Amino acid sequence: KLTSMGIAWGCTISMFIMLIGALSAGDDFFRISADDFVKQSIGSMITGIAFALPSSVYKKEKLKLWMQTMIHLGIGFFVYFMVGFYVGWIPTEQGFGLAAITVIVGMMFGFAVWFGFYLYYKREAIKMNKKIEINNYEE
Q: Is the dihedral of CA 52, 91, 34, 31 positive or negative?
């Protein structure tokens, strides 16, 4: 289930990035070969899986949230950067500055997605606790 979810998220985020690139840079954004497209598509799926599979660490209640987060995002970012360098998402040929900005933006995006999921699951836990409290009160 997590693998499928990771592939779906990786492909969805890839499509949003392509949409933003097409709207901002036009045809220049899409000047890639079929081989590059395949490489980037597979890279998106691998990256999605790399962020989705380690999320199972949150089931380990013995670990503190900060440690769970470090394990989850550490694995995800490690794979993202390795794939990113390989497929060209991180533009090393255009100097250190642009590569550093790309890395920082990628990390900010990753933390933003993590924070969104954190807020969602926190809200769900509050709802479940309220239902339990109501059920206990009615008994």
A: positive
